[in-house]
Design brief:
This protein is mainly alpha-helical. It has one domain. The chain is built from ten helices and no strands. Helix 6 runs antiparallel to helix 10.
Length: 188
Amino acid sequence: MLKNYEKIFKIFFREAELGNWEKVKIENIAKKLNIKESDLKKVIPNKNHFLSFYNINVDKEVIKNISDEEIKISSNDEIIQEYFMNKLEIMSKYKFGIINILNASMKNPSFLITNLKSNKESISKFLKKVKKKNTNISQIVLIKLLLAVWLLAFNKWLYNENEKDAGFAIINKGIMRIKNNTSLFSNV
């Protein structure tokens, strides 16, 4: 993770871990960070955007960890599987905070839309990095299917005792189903 954002993550997730998510205000977080509220709002307009901001930074870390050489020698489904698994691995550091944020925010439509859109954009950006062919319709369908796989795996990872194994199993099964029942990976 970017060093200057790690402190932001720690403070936001700490509040969530303490069960204070519903009381979190950007102005209070800015004070704890010793920065101007307006500077923090440039990257996180309100607390509903925090997980989206975190997701963007997790993606940067994942993409940094997957080399161009790896992309060249691996199949599309293998690279996407690795992408999802690396995301879960990186996110496990703040799993309890993520659970508390989600539990406190699930009835908030703005939060849900912001974070669903963020996850869709995340997958789309990654596919653009690894794509070898340009087929828009196939890519749109693949993004939606991968979003469904990701959300199922993420949910399983959050609430299962064998956190990584359960999430990884869903990722593997979902990607294999897409690969075996469609030609979408060959069109990426």
